[in-house]
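For the sake of transparency, this paper describes our internal protein records without simplification. The tokens are whole numbers drawn from a learned vocabulary of local backbone shapes. One such record is reproduced below, unchanged from the form in which we store it.

. . .
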Amino acid sequence: MNMHAARTASGLDTLKTILGIPVLAIRWNDAVSLLNRLIAERRFTKVSFLNAHNANLASTDPVFAEALDDFLILPDGIGVDLAAKLLYGAPFPDNLNGTDFVPAFLQASTTPLTVGLLGATRVNAEAASAKLAALAVQHRFVVIHDGYFSAAEEAGIVDRIEELRPDVLLVAMGVPRQELWIARHIDARHCTLPIAVGALLDFLSGAVPRAPLWMRRLRLEWLFRLTVEPGRLWRRYVVGNPLFLLRVVRQKFSRTPEAAGGIH
């Protein structure tokens, strides 16, 4: 099921298009209910999150942008909130960043589910699985493979997913690899909800620290991450955030407001 079909199924039709990518404007509890309904009805739906970094990548990578068009996209972070306010006069109802939303969704889902984990290092994936199993005891968590596999191993991994057929498949390979991998390899035979979760397994394992709660409440987690990993993340945030906002301003004043920002 694609983004638009999932929206229709939910009875919700509030979309905010950010740089050409339709993002669902939905409250936290409604998003939990929607994902539970999709699982209950076995409606295959690819899920991802849009933040400033992903939007920048999609603006310059048409293959990634095309793949995202077939995902249910939830809003992640202050960047897309600022964009929504600038373009539509109001931010998204809630910040559904995957690091907080996915564990909360699993905790709130009362029906026992099988959840597959794919990505990160084996150690981090196992630690994340143990953390999730303690958080949501009603579910079964299965580590399928780490994220560092060769092309030769790929078919076996896909076969294992099909054999397990989890209700939820958490794919943690980083952007855009995880979304492209889901788009190319995963369909209704393999699982119901494949969710692209970025660094979630690293966060859950404790290998990558999270910002203090006060920073998260002030929407400054990106700044904390930048101070922890400046070498890896400076370009994403110091260059990427202003570039994202520039693209959004260009969208706002272009003749076709739904068009993707064309600044490369």
User: Anything to note?
Assistant: Residues 83 and 89 are 9 Å apart (CA to CA).
